[in-house]
Amino acid sequence: MGKSQPQVKKEKKPKTPKDIKKELEAKLFGEKDKKKKKEIQGQIKKIDMEIEAENKKRKDVEIAKKVTIRQLIPVGVDPKTVFCLNFKNKNCNLGEKCQFSHIAPKKEDQLDDKQDTGPKLVCKFLIDALNNREFSSEWVCPLPKCKDLHKMTEMSENTEIELSLEEFLELQRQTIDAAKSTPVTEETFKIWKEKKRKEEELHAKRLAALSTAPKGVDLFKFQPDIFEDDEADGDDIDYHAREEVESDQEE
């Protein structure tokens, strides 16, 4: 006789709030104790609130799907390569006239492919986010399997890439170890700003002192007596006699 195969236990589905509410209502119907009856009524009220919140959340999601999304893409990207979000939400009736693709990405396309041996390009979505000042530490490329470069560490082996100064600085910032650097907070920024203000004030005072100091011409105009020689300080010089002596020496 063959061995009997063990019975596979079916996993019990978790009870929904509606199922729990039905059980509590049935329990409430036969309960005579007022205290326990009040407790059951409180549990039912709590479940009603959860059901109402879930229904509201579901309704908000449905309303959000009906709102037309303005889908933007960077310059140079073919719209037909980007999946239409409105079509995904069943809110696009343009059909073939829609500039975006209505073909959902295949599962095969979502798998990781082998890396190309040639040099890669910087992600156009990243460049667009940098130029529009929309880039932050939480920024994520809208293409789920984008093969372009998004970080500075990915560019170490790609020497043919050309970056603008803004792009280079932003990507370089990603390589900084936040644990070893001083974070810029509101308090540290105020300290730095106050220090710079004091330095500028000191520099302005020095310039003002130099500009207001009396010069030689000003002293001669307003106090010419300090430039007059005292008669006792030196002997009178006969310039005519000196010229005759110099002419005799030349002869």
Automatic annotation (TrEMBL):
Highest taxon, organism lineage: Eukaryota
GO BP annotations, alphabetical order: cytoplasmic translation
Keyword ATP-binding: no
Zn finger (C3H1-type) start-end: 78-105
Keyword tRNA-binding: no
A single GO cellular-component term on record: cytosol
A family per Pfam: DFRP_C
InterPro entries listed in its UniProt record: ZC3H15/TMA46_C, Znf_CCCH
Basic and acidic residues bias locations: 14-27
Protein name as catalogued: ZC3HF
Gene behind this protein: ZC3HF
